[in-house]
Amino acid sequence: MGQNNSLSNRILYQVKGKISIITLNQPDKLNALGGDDYTYLAKLMEKSNKDPSTVITLINSSGRYFSSGADYKFIKKYHELINDKKNDEKEIERQNDRFWFNDFIPRNSYLTDCFINHGKIIVACLNGPAIGLSAAMVALSDIIYSKNDDTFLLYPFTKIGLVTEGSTSYSLLLRLGLSRTNEALLLSKPIYNKDLVSCGFVNKCYNMDDYNKKDQVEVNKSTEKFNELILNELSDSVKFLNGDSIKDIKKLINSNIRLYYNSANSKEVIQGYKKWLTGVPQRQFINLANKNIKHKL
Amino acid sequence: MGQNNSLSNRILYQVKGKISIITLNQPDKLNALGGDDYTYLAKLMEKSNKDPSTVITLINSSGRYFSSGADYKFIKKYHELINDKKNDEKEIERQNDRFWFNDFIPRNSYLTDCFINHGKIIVACLNGPAIGLSAAMVALSDIIYSKNDDTFLLYPFTKIGLVTEGSTSYSLLLRLGLSRTNEALLLSKPIYNKDLVSCGFVNKCYNMDDYNKKDQVEVNKSTEKFNELILNELSDSVKFLNGDSIKDIKKLINSNIRLYYNSANSKEVIQGYKKWLTGVPQRQFINLANKNIKHKL
Amino acid sequence: MGQNNSLSNRILYQVKGKISIITLNQPDKLNALGGDDYTYLAKLMEKSNKDPSTVITLINSSGRYFSSGADYKFIKKYHELINDKKNDEKEIERQNDRFWFNDFIPRNSYLTDCFINHGKIIVACLNGPAIGLSAAMVALSDIIYSKNDDTFLLYPFTKIGLVTEGSTSYSLLLRLGLSRTNEALLLSKPIYNKDLVSCGFVNKCYNMDDYNKKDQVEVNKSTEKFNELILNELSDSVKFLNGDSIKDIKKLINSNIRLYYNSANSKEVIQGYKKWLTGVPQRQFINLANKNIKHKL
Amino acid sequence: MGQNNSLSNRILYQVKGKISIITLNQPDKLNALGGDDYTYLAKLMEKSNKDPSTVITLINSSGRYFSSGADYKFIKKYHELINDKKNDEKEIERQNDRFWFNDFIPRNSYLTDCFINHGKIIVACLNGPAIGLSAAMVALSDIIYSKNDDTFLLYPFTKIGLVTEGSTSYSLLLRLGLSRTNEALLLSKPIYNKDLVSCGFVNKCYNMDDYNKKDQVEVNKSTEKFNELILNELSDSVKFLNGDSIKDIKKLINSNIRLYYNSANSKEVIQGYKKWLTGVPQRQFINLANKNIKHKL
Amino acid sequence: MGQNNSLSNRILYQVKGKISIITLNQPDKLNALGGDDYTYLAKLMEKSNKDPSTVITLINSSGRYFSSGADYKFIKKYHELINDKKNDEKEIERQNDRFWFNDFIPRNSYLTDCFINHGKIIVACLNGPAIGLSAAMVALSDIIYSKNDDTFLLYPFTKIGLVTEGSTSYSLLLRLGLSRTNEALLLSKPIYNKDLVSCGFVNKCYNMDDYNKKDQVEVNKSTEKFNELILNELSDSVKFLNGDSIKDIKKLINSNIRLYYNSANSKEVIQGYKKWLTGVPQRQFINLANKNIKHKL
Amino acid sequence: MGQNNSLSNRILYQVKGKISIITLNQPDKLNALGGDDYTYLAKLMEKSNKDPSTVITLINSSGRYFSSGADYKFIKKYHELINDKKNDEKEIERQNDRFWFNDFIPRNSYLTDCFINHGKIIVACLNGPAIGLSAAMVALSDIIYSKNDDTFLLYPFTKIGLVTEGSTSYSLLLRLGLSRTNEALLLSKPIYNKDLVSCGFVNKCYNMDDYNKKDQVEVNKSTEKFNELILNELSDSVKFLNGDSIKDIKKLINSNIRLYYNSANSKEVIQGYKKWLTGVPQRQFINLANKNIKHKL
């Protein structure tokens, strides 16, 4: 992995039988995703949606983390921007606005829409923690499996000075219940695997322990086994199922909730954009970065 | 039980104190229900609803299964129909249409409505597995008790090429949460007693083990004890409760959800009818029957 | 505690850092609340809501019970009224009507509204059981912590001949699921701490056991420790969180549910008022009082 | 017209360019529709829905009336049934039940669903009055044109002792406003063309007067001209429109209302069935028939 | 009329055939209603609702105005209160709070609920203008007739510094459309009879002109004729209608809107109460009173 | 007007008393708006929203048209893009995608959100026709006035191969009723002033005729008078109104509809983006441009 750092190598797309597989493939970066990665993920979701041969869209990852969330490179960009234009505050403001307006709004609203309005069964395989917008996509998946108790979901929006993303203001309410949603979203607390299993958010935990968690190779391998195991089980499950029935029943289920998902999506992207305009989240990201963010978030 | 195979013997109706009791009474058939049985069940629900002396409608069963779902005799009918009219495909199509149009639509929509709009507390006693439309009625009950861990619910609609029945596209979402609902409805996976208890779908499991599960007599007896136990507990509970309060509070609770239940009902019956028109579910039923369906479903 | 029995002593209000603290302070009465207490509680909720310095409204209590619900003095009043006016039934009816019309309706609808439309994180600390309208307020809190397994919630409306209060016809559905809600509201069954934890209603139980439960002093002390512990943890949590984000995200979450909360509120207060007009709940309260109500409810 | 009285002659189906045309073709019967006619109409709606070549489903009629509603032959049947079985009341009840259960429920719910969930633009051409279920289908059409002021809609459900049909409990509310809906549905008052135009229910009235209204030939001809005129105008309109855009926008519009339509459908068919079970509407129909119903309704 | 100024003389209640008639009977006061009048009106609505002999609740009035809204005596009370307690601002605040809390909240929420949840056809006869809470009750009636073009509705909440009352934040939206609702509620503009007719809010205007509008006797008489005319027409209409059908269809229609009505009710009463607490509306009323309010509102 | 073609000159912003005024100021271009103009309009909406001194946001225009919709320059850009990159289809596709993704999605969703969630009274003054996204903003205004019968609204989305924009899939349904909405949106028919007035979409038409419609100077002047007249009337209206009441009542009204507005917004922008990706609307625009689009649309 890695030399060829093109998008199609950072996120893999395969078809096996009735299953489209989307794989986050940057284990060394803990599968942090840049803006382009998220947009590419959305495009792959659409590609899978249109493929007449498959019934399931399986999203899995690699290594230790499912995805540590948004990549921080963009903050650097912003920082450099500030330094470059020191004397022209208006220009900084203008460029900041353009950056978030033209990038943040379409990316988040499109990615979220691709999950909300997906016609196939979305299965997410949580090999490890998921954070931020990536964790929001997990919460928009239909069926969720986890590898072991190292898994958690983290939505640190109040820590960064943002609002919820990826329709989590509705999806978590629907799936975690009100008390846990409030703790997760208002207090930015992680939700650990045990709770995810007990409240039915995670359908099944495979309890595949990595005995030497620091051994990257061991972890990578066990994640691969975890992915393989699920793929095999799903292939078996889906063999005797009727694809049209699946599509129609998913529509029936979603007709109860789609209005709320869509409404959350449009409110969140615009409110999020306005937060970025204030400059607060940018500063917060930089502060956190300076304090070894990996452990704090 | 059994010689007299009239409807009123296949499903019993009694009143004890403030409780109307409806009992599925064909343990030898695993309480599989034919079309007439389902309609008769609906009529008994209405009878109970109108009885001014009772406050609870208790639905229990007999033997090993709560109900193995729809009886397969109707498939035979269809099969014979095909053989009879070999040379007249239009006539087969016409008769098939009439069969499902005039039987399936009213039965399913009426039965579902009788549960959705019932004014009393519906208590379901799960002595064992429930499948298909019968399991859908369990999911429309207000309070649910189970006998032991042999219990499961199974909604095999995607396996048969149908869509959801009995408003399960909403009722399961409401009661199992989204992840479990997707597994149950999209992948046709059974939901086992342990999960039903942990997610609060089952209010209480009585853990009445049948040590020799193959001994039909033992199983029948323990189911009777299970039914008796619940009846006694409920009789005690309800003794000091105000019937008008119960009726009014149930209306208040249901006002939050009835729109969704009713909408699901009408969509499901028409979409289900269209599936039957294609002939796919019929063929699937026959296939499964040939492969010893009891174990596969 | 105690000598000075003014409202501001019966319910305390403090601000510590970013947290407003409302404390029920009548441990000897098991924190039973009279009509004025409930209205005062609502006023304190508003006071906290308007305080620009805080982000969390923490509600805790004292002693053994969080709150044993509505105080019974008002029943006495009613009883005496009946005795005083023995010969003038119309006057009794008129005064009864006025009493419930002018006191019950505004108190319940205002208190409920103050919780539903509160802008900060409401955290409830369940040191022990909560009953009736007090328990309804717990169910309208955002995050809930419990002290130990002695905790339960009890909504005995069908026992008294009332209807649900405090929008519980929606709030419990949202938080306990349908099966548990039906048992709690239709059968007036207590919901014990273990179930509250397992269904996610309680975010965390602190398992602070009182080894000698009859020792009032020990219990009082351990409740104080429980309150202190939570206050400290929350103070830590909230230190690094962005207040505007919290406010905005709470609005986003609530936009999914507020319509139902508000609708329940107006229906419940009017239906409740009509129940009181019949005289049934009054008689029921007196009956229960005569039978040592503390143990029966 | 006429000699050949097969279904396909009673209701015509043609395709002209991008328009499917369904024509009620029994002017001598004022286009009263029997049970089979309604079901056949539903099938033609589905046929049109699946036709990849068309974008509009145009429903027009012939002669003086769009449709005088349900044919009364079925009442005769019921009457004769009563006479035949004079001595066996239970059998009468049983047969009555079966008749309405197996015919009324599926016909009404299927027909209504075919209109609610139709993917193309439904255009209804009101050449004259429409009554009952036929008038309900008009209210489920997307665009409505009228010939002249002789047109009216009549929903005489409270006159016959029924409940609303064809989701009119929602569709009229949506299209006529609350005051007019109440007069139309609760008081069984006709809504005349002028009001239909002024409230926007009818998109356009063509004011094609029949100067000698008793001359059946003249009326028939002017209705044909009316139909032709609309067909030509629509053909022109639709020539430059994008079919995919139409389909997608119709979905977007309907997503706001479909939940209510579907819910009304399921409630109405079951409640209607229960009304028929009482025997009241049957007697009322016979009474009205004896009093020259044409003028009274 | 007049000498006997008891409640039962200020608002009359009669039953004629299938119609309960509630008549506002203080023409000399332009049927301004005090707090007790509104509560009494609500009680009469309930009385009518429970009367098994009637199907319609007809609300009419007397003289020139349907109702000029809330009586201003209560402002005087408040004014005097201020003068009496000049030196004790806290006491003024406390009494003001109690006054609006215990009177305003229950009256408005109960009256509104009695209209929203009424089971019969509510017919309002607008003999002339209706203002404020009285006009809100007109907007909650099912069918509305007007006498002539002198009629208007006025909701001057933004003029007085209040919020909407009687669920008008939803009822007007439903019945007047968004543009007219905004002008009526946000700009406090009257809606005149012509617009009420053209938008279908008023079902029919009887155009009974009073040629000498200053002649109180003539106006009183023509209002009586107007009331009589409607009563006769309704008696005729309702003669052949099925009461159960009416009740059931009204429920079906209302199931689409009741959630919004109820939610508006609870929000409006609490927000209105908070406005009164500020003292702003009181001052505004006194200002307006000093400027000959009759012409300005 | 004119020489200085900066954004702030193309759309003017003024404050007069309690009214913020936004003026489209390119009469020579019929106030066609480019992408930057729409974004700037949104920013001005926000500026007005935050201004503590005003209560009304008045949007007016200049000359003959309110706004002829989106400027066609962007099509030229696209056309040139195609010509420039003739040999690199992938690059064309990529640039096309980026163009619509980064510009179309944020602009439309932000602009729509700024109208939906605006806290003040939005008044639109229709001096003449409005088309497309501009017409969508009119439909999101609270109160609408028109100059004369030359006014119309046109939503030509099915003509161009797009989907609805600016939440018109809900806003028109709410304001025009279903029949007119279907004609306007599905058949791309203009809605003329007379219909806009009769259905209450336009609150008032000022009937200010331009006798010599070709005389640009006369038209410009009469539009200025129209704007002035409304400004004066509004200034008078608003003088005695309570700003807090207005804000609070607007929130109450909008709470009934905001969910639908927001949901429409997110669905429309993503579906619209996908339409642009196909290249169909671009080709259609060019075709129409070649055929003298001004008259055809």
UniProtKB/TrEMBL annotation, chains A, B, C, D, E, F:
Coiled coil location: none
Pathway: Lipid metabolism; fatty acid beta-oxidation
A GO BP entry: fatty acid beta-oxidation
Recorded GO MF terms: delta(3)-delta(2)-enoyl-CoA isomerase activity
InterPro entries tied to this protein: ClpP/crotonase-like_dom_sf, ECH/Chromodomain_protein, Enoyl-CoA_hydra/iso
Principal place of residence: other
Transmembrane portions of the chain: none
Key words of the record: Isomerase, Peroxisome
GO cellular component assignments: peroxisomal matrix
Protein's cellular compartments: Peroxisome
PANTHER family for this protein: ENOYL-COA DELTA ISOMERASE 2 (PTHR43684:SF1), PTHR43684
Entry's family note: Belongs to the enoyl-CoA hydratase/isomerase family.
Protein name per its UniProtKB record: ClpP/crotonase
